[in-house]
Amino acid sequence: MLLILHTIISLMETAKKVIHQELEEFEKYFREAVKGKGGLLDSILRYIVKRKGKQLRPMFVFLSAKLGGTVNDATYRAASLVELLHTATLVHDDVVDESMERRGFFSINALWKNKIAVLVGDYLLSKGLLLAVNNGDFAALQALSTAVKQMSEGELLQMEKARNLNITEAVYYEIINGKTASLLASACQAGATTTFTDKESIDKMRAFGEKVGMAFQIKDDLFDYGNEDIGKPTGNDIKEKKITLPLIYTLNTCTNTLKKKLIGIVKKNNKTKEEIDFVITQVTAHNGITFATNKMNAFRDEALAILHSFPASEIRNALEELVRYTTDRKY
Predict the structure, then answer these.
(1) What is the pLDDT of residue 49?
(2) Tell me: the pLDDT tens digits for 126-170?
(3) How far apart are CA 261 and CA 177, in angstroms?
(4) Which pLDDT tens digit goes with each residue over 206-256?
(5) pLDDT at res. 12
(6) Residues 109-128: what's their mean pLDDT?
(7) Is 166 buried (19+), middle (13-18) or exposed (0-12) by CB count in 10 A?
(8) Distance between CA 242 and CA 245 in Å, rounded?
(9) 275-289 pLDDT, tens digit each
């Protein structure tokens, strides 16, 4: 297990080494981009900067840009725009989900209540939009604005379908394409627009990011059925009545009697640990985990096929390792 974990961390570190200087410079760009006018707002923004995550999306921005040429000021702005919009959506998501934690820290709404959290999310969104508009980065703005629209559509579609638990495999892909893949697709597209000069390459990088994003979300959904220490309780999606790919496959392949029982458990507002464990056991027994893992790997391989259409280079290798990290990670 330690060897596997070390290998996964090494994959991400290899990509970081290739863009080490860019990531260091990005820290300055991002701190400047989120700066407020003092007081409460700055206190909250400093807290947000302090608890930022692995910065996967900015990494994809920089590597996508470097695949096409030399990183420039527009690339740094694109990475900042991506991170600002992503952070804004996370702040809003925590309010919607009534979540008290994010990445092991208290969420903004837990510390400063919902009204302030919503306003801070709006502020981050506006800062990102102004960063792009004031510098004429309209290609990046178009890409990220599309992502925000698709993310909202994905969330609303999931809520709509969750009422009757009638999510098919096709609908599931539509949901995660909007919720997760659209932002990573836009990150790769935005980075590519700052160095590539041909539309074909930029479109390919968007398609590449979309495939990676699909694999990334399926991996996240698989965590719900495992025993990894990932920062959220196993069975959390089941508790929240979220039907993801492992369960969808099981419901499509099990007996009608078992299907009714599983749906009955998921529909319940107050599920016992025994009921949640029963769902997880049945999903595992009916190869739901295996099916979802195979689909995840298929999206990963489609992303790599697009990536390999570009000439071999250190940057391409770093992107490939980052792609493999998204499916091999343990959290």
Answers:
(1) 78
(2) 888 998 899 998 998 899 889 989 998 988 888 887 776 778 899
(3) 29
(4) 999 999 999 999 999 998 887 554 444 467 788 878 889 999 999 999 999
(5) 67
(6) 85
(7) exposed
(8) 10
(9) 999 999 999 999 999
What angle in degrees, to the nearest 10, is found between the helix axes of 182-193 and 56-68? 40
Give Cα separations from 92 to 120, 123, 142, 186, 235 (angstroms): 9, 11, 21, 19, 23
Q: Is the dihedral of CA 30, 33, 35, 36 positive or negative?
A: negative
pLDDT, residue 38, reads 75
199, 68 in Cβ contact below 8 A?
Answer: no
CA 310 to chain centre: 24
User: What is the rounded average pLDDT of the residues 107-112?
Assistant: 80
State phi, psi for 105 to the nearest 5 degrees: -115, 160
CA distance from start to end of the chain: 14
| Pair of tokens at residue 301 | 């391989």
Once rounded to an integer, what is the mean pLDDT over residues 80-107? 79
Model's pTM, two decimal places? 0.87
Residue located via tokens 């495999």: 169
* Residue whose tokens read 């400047």: 32
- Token pair listed for 272: 């016992």
Print the SS3 string covering the chain. CHHHHHHHHHHHHHHHHHCHHHHHHHHHHHHHHCCCCCHHHHHHHHHHHHCCCCCHHHHHHHHHHHHHCCCCHHHHHHHHHHHHHHHHHHHHHHHHCCCCEECCEECHHHHHHHHHHHHHHHHHHHHHHHHHHHCCCHHHHHHHHHHHHHHHHHHHHHHHHHCCCCCCHHHHHHHHHHHHHHHHHHHHHHHHHCCCCCHHHHHHHHHHHHHHHHHHHHHHHHHCCCCCCCCCCCCHHHHCCCCCHHHHHHHHHCCHHHHHHHHHHHHCCCCCHHHHHHHHHHHHHCCHHHHHHHHHHHHHHHHHHHHCCCCCCHHHHHHHHHHHHHHHCCC
CATH class of segment(s) 2-328: mainly alpha
For 142, other C-beta atoms within 10 Å of its C-beta total 15
